[in-house]
């Protein structure tokens, strides 16, 4: 994956060399082109919208199965590749401000809500995408009819957040912001070896090192969520595997424990790893069913009220 994409007489290209004019995309407030993906229900007008917010290093096309199942319930699903991810412009695994991810999500959600007025909009965020989705919902507390978080990154792993490592990352971020400070350990992605292999061989996944500036921005974003958890208002479902080593389940529990009383649920799956939607088949199916059931129940409740 290269850095910023070039342009030609036909316009800008994705990092893979495809003209953005030939693929779904949006241009964010910074002028960067973001690859978009839309899954539309067949034979009916959508009765709800749901935005998927992917995690670090990955891309939005990995959510085909859950999107297809939601389509069967009349839900239009949409997503984009974050800046520096997949087929979007931007430097890999680097961000000047975590708020850029949040603003891009809100811009895309506003666009879709404007195109489909009068129906509820939900958001589903995975891992770092869970951090983004939570902050987006905090910024717009009445925008989303429900928030689904799978393995949300809210509390950093102790070994990555020791005092000296955080200090080192902050120092590097100020002088060498793109210095590589770590990588995703693929052995913790899933218990399914086929899913791990698919992750390792996916050309749209970034397999290089995560940057110092990105690490600091992400740590600060998680800290913001913990500080403001008591004001998190939307209905939410938090899902996590108890053997997740990449994103601690204590983070989902913290949000659940500290959010105000109301429509909130948490489910910790015994034995599951980080990518709940790409776990062993029976478990992945269970997670998808839990998500679809939770969302459709709230669509029905909204329609009734």
What does this structure look like?
This protein is an alpha/beta fold and 305 residues long. The chain has one domain: Alpha/Beta hydrolase fold, catalytic domain (Rossmann fold, 3-Layer(aba) Sandwich), CATH 3.40.50. The chain has eight helices and twelve strands. The chain has helices at 64-71, 99-115, 128-139, 163-175, 193-201, 212-228, 249-258, 281-304; strands spanning 7-8, 11-12, 25-27, 33-39, 48-53, 75-80, 121-126, 146-150, 180-182, 210-211, 236-241, 264-269. Strand 11 (236-241), helix 7 (249-258) and strand 12 (264-269) form a beta-alpha-beta unit. The chain is globular, with a radius of gyration of 18 Å. The termini are far apart. Residues 1-5 have low confidence and may be disordered. InterPro entries: AB_hydrolase_1, AB_hydrolase_fold, Hydrolase_4, MAG_DAG_Lipase. This is Monoglyceride lipase-like. Residues 45-280 form the Serine aminopeptidase S33 domain. Pfam families: Hydrolase_4.
Describe the structure in brief:
This protein is 36% helix and 18% strand.
